Target: Aminopeptidase
Amino acid sequence: MEQLKGQPRLPKFAAPKRYDIRLKPDLTACKFAGLVAIDLDIVSETKFIVLNAAELSIIAGTVSFTPKESSQVFEPCKVDLVEEDEILVLEFRQKLPIGFGVLVIGFEGTLNDKMKGFYRSKYEINGEEKNMAVTQFEPADARRCFPCWDEPACKATFTITLDVPSELVALSNMPIIDEKVDGPTKTVFYQESPIMSTYLVAVVVGLFDYLEDHTSDGIKVRVYTQVGKEKQGKFALDVAVKTLELYKEYFAVPYPLPKLDMITIPDFAAGAMENYGLVTYREAALLYDEQNSAAAHKLNVAIAVAHELAHQWFGNLVTMEWWTHLWLNEGFATWVSYLATDSLFPEWKVWMQFLEESIDGLRLDGLAESHPIEVEVNHAGEIDEIFDAISYCKGAAVIRMLHSYLGAECFQKSLAAYIKKHACSNAKTEDLWASLEEGSGEPVNRLMNLWTKQKGYPVVSVKIKDEKLEFEQMQFLSNGTQGDGQWIVPITFCFGSYEACKNFLLQERSSSINLDGVSSWIKINVDQTGFYRVKYDEDLAAKLRFAIESKMLSPTDRLGILDDSYALCMARQLPLTSLLTLISAYREELEYTVLSNLISAAYVAVMQAVNSSDRSGYESLLRVYRETDLSEEKTRVLGSLASCRDPNIVLEVLNFLLSPEFSSFERAKEVEEFFSTRTKPTMARTLKQSIERVQINAQWVQSVQNEEHLPETVQELAHRKN
Model:
């Protein structure tokens, strides 16, 4: 038995085929009881059955295994719940016969308050506080609700039965097929599910209102809300119905289930969870109040719904083989949610917001403490650490880059073939590349492995020499050092107009192409579809500034140029004077997203009224900065201070920004010492990334302090602004 402990994954003695689960939650005592019957295929001779279980009590005398072709009942001689490994080890006196059989286990547990497993969430009805029962199983918490093979590749069908108070609504993945009321309690029976992974099983029990609609092919779609809030679910309901129709065409596979429920949960750790047929959301991610919600919130709701519904195909129907391929789930769903939202609401120009998310990925992936898109996960305990901007934002960005390179039609057809081939099964990253390579004839596997299996990304330096445009790639690191990574980079560029575009693969460290007499501005990485940064020589940069001032570039390209220059400046690859000169080209910028990366508007207005004889607004903002404990508020203040028209105040602001009150090596050391005795494995990488960011800021401040001609440049730009 000892050799079964301490293993990262379950042994392969047995494979689950079907679960019959009965749960009885007690919402007053916050406990639950359950019984699970699992159809198993014993694939090799063994005296052991090992499955996952955590924070459960196994009821004595309830565990047995009965082979299908025999009346003999095997009862374990030892039942060992190994909490540190979250496994249940059943030892039998004799070897179990190879073939099919049924494993039965009775168990009890607590409806916890940790927002994972089978947990309780509080809500109010007529001023009275009540408990609801909710499940959240991704990544590895189904084991906290019932003993199971809690790994994504261990797919099976599920039949759920719930014993609940008669007055409550009880939901699961599948439609209700029967309901029997016995006084204050009712037993609810659900249709058997298709094959799926344990992390997608879901149960919700409580009091709710709902709205309902149907797709053109009869799929019932409902939005469940807290009592009295159902009207706020109308927009999400409309988006869901339209998105199901869109995905049915895009993936060339119908929605696999007979219904789709979406429900808001008051206490919810994630933004949303794609449980098959029963998607759970934080209230803010699903509800939209036509009278009071901000317009930007409408976009967020649409993207959240489109993201979770994409998972019904890409994640639920075709599931990652193991958590190493998490990006396959999250990166793809993030990208396709923007594709769907853009199709439904083209006037929203959602790719601009997508670029903002890509920038989040670039900033995180520029750290030495980043990680590849594909992280080798050895143990379930490591999973939470990789749910970050790399999985979501970089994953989505490289999918978009590949989509742009292969072309929309080729990509869609190859994707549909991939889903058809791996439906009701599991897949690895390489399986997706194989389908796309087969459909396109391009070296997709070789190209994309460089983007998913190594961390980081390149900065592509561009210059003109001898009538040629020369490209050189080098790994970009925000700390200013040079990495040794190398990629196959899909380069796109236009010159003088978006009508004149070219593309090629930069497969070596450097390459060049003939300019054929081109003398106008040149923009590399058209519309920022590539996941890399660009560094221009001074001549090219000057022409781009002219293109920005002349409104010749798209908003996405204007934002991309700005962010690349800022990142290069922070990495000490570009002087601050160059960045400030670039910023001056945005004097007449009107695009909100570009502006929001330049200045947050209220504080700017205050600073524009400040001068040497009336410093009150400036001093008030400094007081806000020093007294607030909200990091977003500090960021807003810092982003506005240089908006003053008085060059003397601007110089004072610059000195403040370069003071230790901004970032310093001492701050980095302070953070490091604080966490030296408080670090948990799940936060180790995030902590290292945070410390590295502080060090990068401190290095940049130190570099700027030593920069020549900076005061003169600041004064010149301030006068020019006047």
Notes: The mean pLDDT is 89. The chain is about 35% helix and 25% strand. The domain at 1-200 is CATH 2.60.40.1730 (Immunoglobulin-like). Residues 494 and 523 are 5 Å apart (CA to CA).
